[in-house]
Please model this.
Amino acid sequence: MEGMANMTNSDTTAAPAIAGAAGDGTGARRRRIAAFGLLLLLALSTGLTARAQDQNDEDENNKAALLKHGEEVFDHICHTCHHRRKDMNWTGPSLYGVVGRKAGTEPGYEYSSAMKNFGKVWTVEELNHYLYDPQAYIPGVKMHFIGLKRKWNRHAVIAYLATLHD
Ligand code: HEC
Model:
C-alpha cells in the first residue's frame, strides 16, 4: 500500500515537471517560429523593394519608350479636348507649358471657378493626383474625364507634357 502511495506521489510530482518542460519547449518553438517568420517577412519585403527599384530603374532608362507611351496617351485621350500647341485653347486649355504653370491661368481660356480657385502650380506630383481622378481632386472642375487609373499611364503622359515647352 505504501509503495502504491509513493508511486502515485511520484507520478503526480513528475507530471507538472513534464508539463513544465513541455510548456517551455512550446514557448521556445513559438519564439523560433516567430523569429523565422520575421526574417521571412524581412527577406520578402527587401526582395520586393529591390524588385520595385529594378522596375523603376528600367523605366528611367527607358525614357524614350516612356515618352512614346505618353504621347499615345495624349493622342488617344487628352487630345479629344486639349491641344498640345501653344495658345490653342479648345474644350480644355492648351496643355503647352502646363508643367510648372499655375492652374487656371492659361490666357484666353474660360476656366471654372473651381479651377481658378485651386491656386496651385502644376507640378508632376499635383498632375499625378489630378489625373488620377480630376473631379475628386478638384471638386467642381469642368474636365469631364474619369481619370487615368494606371500609374504607368499618368507617369508617361506627365513626362510627355513636360516636353511641351519653349
Ligand atoms: C472631355 C474633355 C477632356 C479630356 C478628355 C481631358 N481634359 Fe483636361 N481639361 C478639360 C477641361 C474642360 C479643363 C478645364 C477645367 C476647368 O476649368 O474646370 C481641363 C483642364 C486640364 C488641366 C488644367 C490646365 C490648367 O491650365 O490649369 C490639365 C492639367 C488637364 N486638363 C490635363 C489633361 C490631361 C493630361 C488629359 C489626358 C489624360 C486630359 N486633361 C483630358 C477637358 C478635358
The chain is about 65% helix and 0% strand. The pocket of heme C is lined by residues 73, 77-78, 80-82, 91-93, 95, 98, 103-104, 106, 111-112, 114-115, 122, 127, 131, 141-145, 148, 157 (CB under 6 Å).
